[in-house]
Amino acid sequence: MMMKSILITFIIASALLSSVFADIGGKRTLVVLDDLSIKKTHSTFFKNLENKGYKLQFEQSNTKVVLEKYGDFNFDNLILFSPTSESLSFSSADVTRFIDGGNNVLFAGSNVISENIRDIAAECGMEIEEDKTLIFDHFNYDKSQSDHSVLVADQFIDDSPIILQGLNKPILFKGIGHKIRNNPLNYAILTGSSTAFSAKAISGVSTKLMGKSCGLVSSLQARNNARVTFSGSLDLFSDKSFYSKIDNKESGNKEFVERLVSWTFQERGILRASELELVKISTESNSTVAPDVFTIKDEVKYSLKVEEFDGIKGKWVPYVGSLQLEVIMLDPYIRTFIKGDANGLYKIHFKLPDVYGVFTFEASIHKSGYSTLDHIYRKPILPFRHDSYERFIPAAFPYYATCFSMLIGTFIFSIIFLFNKDQLNK
Amino acid sequence: MSTTASTSSNNLTFTSIVKSFFESYSKTPQKLKIIDLFLIYTFITGVIVFTYCCLVGTYPFNSFLAAFISTVGCFVLTVCLRIQINPINNFGKTISIERAFTDYLLCNLILHLVVFNFLG
């Protein structure tokens, strides 16, 4: 009996531990390929991942693979390098569920794209162009080749530096374009320049997509912080592309892909909050209530530690930035922005509102490229107790005097009235 | 009756009105005069309280309300007492002076309980 309970405790503890550690920066990766020769043509890409500790499991697209079993996912990341094959062993619904489970997906397109991949892209807010189209640009193409569809692309996303970490070397790109839905969750990581357009590869008949709305590479960070990246070109990840040159200078392809993939697989830009401290400093109420009971108009100190995940070191480091704090009861009564110090501590002193009720202290960071952080803490704010109001305020002395004068006046009036001998003649 | 009508129609000046008012007021019983005096006192106190509040602000608002309610309440109750014991109103047949005065005191007790509860 004793042994049995110890065994059960051990099993539960190990299950809990494993679930804790599988949380962030998971390395189990499924790679689905159209054809296993991609393993050779993209060897640098895969080798880099393996060097970073990713456990790659290569499967051909028609092999039966189970992503999820009893609500548990067998993989943390999914690389779908099988744009063409119609015999993909899992459906777009499976992939959506995989993303909903907080896992990451990297997938790429090619000249012809299967319905399955199109569905997945559409679920993620990307509408891939028709088959056999390419993005052309008659101004920004690789001048060493006559092919105008080999773009020299440098329209990187610039409002979320966390993703590409300040990359500014142009990259070579040849592939299919996609339209990116206008959605705060979608990031247009690489787009065509204003002279780019999408057209049929053979006939050259252009489609409606043009200019900067031509998405080349884009990402989605879902509300559960799962990250999905789609590239219109599978060749972008190939060895040939990594070592390609623009005007005899090295292209930025290798760095671009490395940074893109490491962001997609949650090696950085993940935030967490801890060590909440909400303390009463001073109070306007006169009564001696317990220190952890808040009354209206109390002066309080709020402090929260925010850390971001550093995938290279594999540990949490302080996040220095800005945090939005709201004190909400249906409406935000207080909304402030707090600057963090070097230790990632966000501290502020403020006065609680003059309204009682159950308030939510919501700290949030919505910074593009970072995971969304919403730290919610609820606490009631009580009204003053009957004995906690201030008494004998000097300004109120005339009022006290009035009340007493009325009392005494009535008393004197009563005496005079009663002892008056005058008879009312009826 | 006819003489008063003729005088009023002849010279309806302010002084004559005041004079006739005091003439007729002197005929009111003394008890009612005492009541009137007390009424004037409560009224003036009420006005003073209100002016003070306008000048100083409403900060201890409950105290102001208590003081103001106290003056207004006293005024209203005393007016009620005056109506009940005034012989012109013929309440004397159903309500005796003693009964009216006891009611008055009881109401005052309740009023001041409320006022002092509210004052703090």
Give your account of this protein's structure.
Chain A is an alpha+beta fold. In chain A, helix 4 runs parallel beside helix 5. By secondary structure, chain B is mainly α. Chain B has one domain. Chain B has five helices and no strands. Chain B is flat, with a radius of gyration of 19 Å. The chains are: A alpha+beta (426), B mainly alpha (120). The interface between A and B is medium-sized, with 26 and 37 residues.
Features:
heterodimer, A: 426 residues, alpha+beta, Rossmann fold, Immunoglobulin-like, 2 domains, eight-stranded mixed β-sheet, five-stranded mixed β-sheet, 9 helices, elongated, B: 120 residues, mainly alpha, flat, disordered N terminus, transmembrane (chain B), endoplasmic reticulum (chain B), membrane (chain B), DAD/Ost2 (chain B), Dolichyl-diphosphooligosaccharide--protein glycosyltransferase subunit 2 (chain B)
